[in-house]
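To close the chapter, one final illustration. This time we ask the reader to focus less on the individual chains and more on the assembly as a whole: which components sit near each other, and how the overall shape emerges from the parts.
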Amino acid sequence: MRKIAKSALDSLFAAMSESKKVYLPVDGEGGARYQLWTEGTVLSEAVNTVRSAKDFFFPQTENLVEFKMEGKKLDVIDVRRETEDFVIFGVRACDVRSFDILDRVFLGAPVDTYYKNRREHGVIVSLACNKPAETCFCQTFGIDASAPAGDIVCHMTDDTLFLDAKTEKGEKLLATLEGVTEPCADSAADEQKALIRSRLDKLPLKGLTADKFGGDKTKEFFNDPAWASLSESCLGCGTCTFVCPTCQCYDIKDFKTADGVRRFRCWDSCMYSEFTKMSAGQPRLTQKERFRQRFMHKLVYYPANNEGIFGCVGCGRCLAKCPIQMNIVKVMKKLGEGGDKND
Amino acid sequence: MQKVTRDILVNKAKELLANGTVDRVYGWKKGEFAYDVTPALFKSEKELDEFVFGDFCGANVSKYLVAESKKAGGKILVFLKPCDTYSLNQLTTEHRVDREKIYAVGIPCEGMLTGSALKDKVDSVLSVETEGDTVKVETLYDGVKTFPASDLLPDRCRNCKSKKHVTYDELIGEDGEVLDSGRFDEVEKLEKMTPDERFAFWQGELSRCIRCNACRDVCPACTCEKCVFDNPKSGLENKAAADSFEEKMFHIIRAFHVAGRCTDCGECSRVCPQHIPLHLLNRKFIKDMNTFYGEYQAGEVVGNRPPVVNYTKEDIEPSEAVKRGE
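The assembled structure is written out below.
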């Protein structure tokens, strides 16, 4: 483990930036968001960014291929380029877990080469959450915000940042930072970890459990009468899906250019009326079915295909951002209560 | 802050359910946190146990009436704050709701807090209490913090345009007046900018847009059965932007489409997960219409024609409008 004074963070980011681009959460209008570090950029202390870190590997919009017409000749242009190495600094435990969830989708066969390219070039420097928020419930999914995963795991005290390399990628990066950091005992961050753990114990959503859900629970929950009242006021917007670190659905569309076609993909939302529309129409006719799809995917379908791992990481973004304050916590509590008074 | 209590509303709802005036109630349901309130339908006296009313009941439930008033059954009870009544009138004008199926009870409003505005100022909110105009916020790590309500209220409430209910079947408390608000102050600031400054301002704001469509989906003026942006056959359906500023097209087109019909309820800015001050676009249109066509407030009176669809000889010459844009 190595350490650096908090007051010297600028020199740490400068040293990192010598070999790689460094992105970190920065406070701005409406909350923290990842930005490229340049001299003078200040690390945000917000517990989380408005948009999740999935953008780095699975951007909202991405060109896949271009087709160009020249007379009667059609060129197919591969737009993929090898990504440069980059560092994402300050990723929280929940978002680090979200990468595992996305990996299972994009790196499983057939491998998504666009995603893989970026994933391989990204180094994750995580940062334990000193002040988990009231909306946080990562513990529900077995995530420990005091000990995140990542290539390098960091803990921040009032005056010091501790850095602990956990992977080969992390060790390589940390080795380049020897000039600005100094070695310290492996137990140096233990006090901070204990403080965080005591704070996690006091969170209002601490007791929330996902035990009743899982890959074999389709029959238990699919026809639960509670879906009707839970989805009743849903606006059908895509806020929850777009701020979610694990929502991974996308659409592929063509954009007509002057002399051809640019094929791109972009995030899609199961909350939208046109989602997965096919020749026979939209399979989910009302907002109730669309709403159900999102939560069944997180709590039942994803675990069914991924050894019981849930598709939610408890980051709490949907709790903070839903325009009508409906969210997965309310859904988890309400489902399976046995009948719904509104039906 | 709010002078009317939950119990007054629940008792009114129970009375109207019991005497058969209405058979369901659109209101608000308590959530996990103090600021966390969901619009909800209540179909029986017993369900009203979960009914809440307080300083976070800002959601304008008028738009839910578009779908709800089409359903079979009796009348729907809604409790409308003054600004919500303008929306209901506008929806009635546009034949989007069946006003006969709605029983509107006007309730006074002292301004509504929002979770997002609150969380801009304080982290990790455990509970919120208001005493008069003082808001006490209990936090996880910083003890109890105290704010004057005006520090936490969103622009739409700080610059409230009216405490008057423009439509109701019954009123709780006394009706207020149309206010002389400073709601165009921010617009004037934007107007004073150079075109480059203004472009930079909107570029900064709109480049944060994630195109979740929450502004459109919550907007009581956006009630098209199929939005052009959702229609794959329109050629405009775009779930993605070609560049980081393409979203301006979506927002500007939307602002044009609701011009003259937007009542300035401010829901678009309330729901934006990226805190984009979308209401300023609408207010610019409202201000311009006031300037060029005379004062007009959408939703003030049922049946009023917005100036942009109501030709008069006194209308501004298009050439004059063009000159102004140069």
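Chain B touches chain A through 52 residues (CB under 8 Å). Chain B has two domains: 1-112+160-181, 184-326. With these observations in hand, you are ready for the problems at the end of the chapter.
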